[in-house]
Amino acid sequence: MSNCIFCNIASGIIPAQKLYEDEEILAFQDVSPQGPVHFLVIPKKHIPNIMELEVTDTLLIGRMLHKAQALAQEQGCAEKGARFVINCKSHGGQTVDHLHIHVIGGRPLGWPPG
Ligand code: 5GP
Ligand code: ZN
Fold it and tell me: For a tag site, which of 47, 61, 76, 94 has the least CB within 10 Å?
C-alpha cells in the first residue's frame, strides 16, 4: 500500500535501520525507542493488524516470532528477557496499520500497561 509507512520501509522508499531482511519479513529499529533494545518485525506484505491474519499466514507469523526471538538474543536479551508485543487497533494502541511485533528490552518493564 503506497500510503503505508511500513510498506514504504519494506520497499526501501522510507529509510530505516535494518536488522534483518528476507523475501517475506523485515526487522528494523523503532524510530522512537522505549528501551535500550526496541525493534520491530514486520511482514513485507501488507497485513493491517493481527485481526486480519489468515490461517495461510501461520508459517509467516511463526517465522516473524522466531526471528524476533533470535534478534532479541543477539541484542543481549536472552538472560533477562524482553517484551514481545503486538498492538491491535485503537484499544490495543496500534498507531501504524501494518502488522508488527515490537521487541522491547534492556531494562525492566512495568505491567500491567496503562
Ligand atoms: P504501534 O503503536 O502501531 O504498535 O507502533 C508503531 C511503532 O512504529 C512506534 O513504536 C513508532 O515509534 C514506530 N514508527 C512509526 N513511524 C516509524 C518510522 O517511520 N520508522 C521507524 N523506524 N519506526 C516508526
Ligand atoms: Zn503496509
Answer: 76
Q: Is the pTM of this model over 0.85?
A: yes
CB hemisphere CA count around 50 (13 angstroms): 14
Which of these is catalytic: 38, 46, 66, 100?
A: 100
The whole-angstrom separation of Cα 96 and Cα 104 is 17
96 CB near ligand 1 (under 6 Å): yes
Cα separation, 85 vs 102, whole angstroms: 5
> How far is ligand 1, taken at its centre, from the CA of residue 39, in Å?
9
Rg for the chain, CA atoms, rounded? 14
Q: What mean pLDDT is predicted for residues 65-90? A: 98
Domains and CATH numbers, the chain: 5-105 (3.30.428.10)
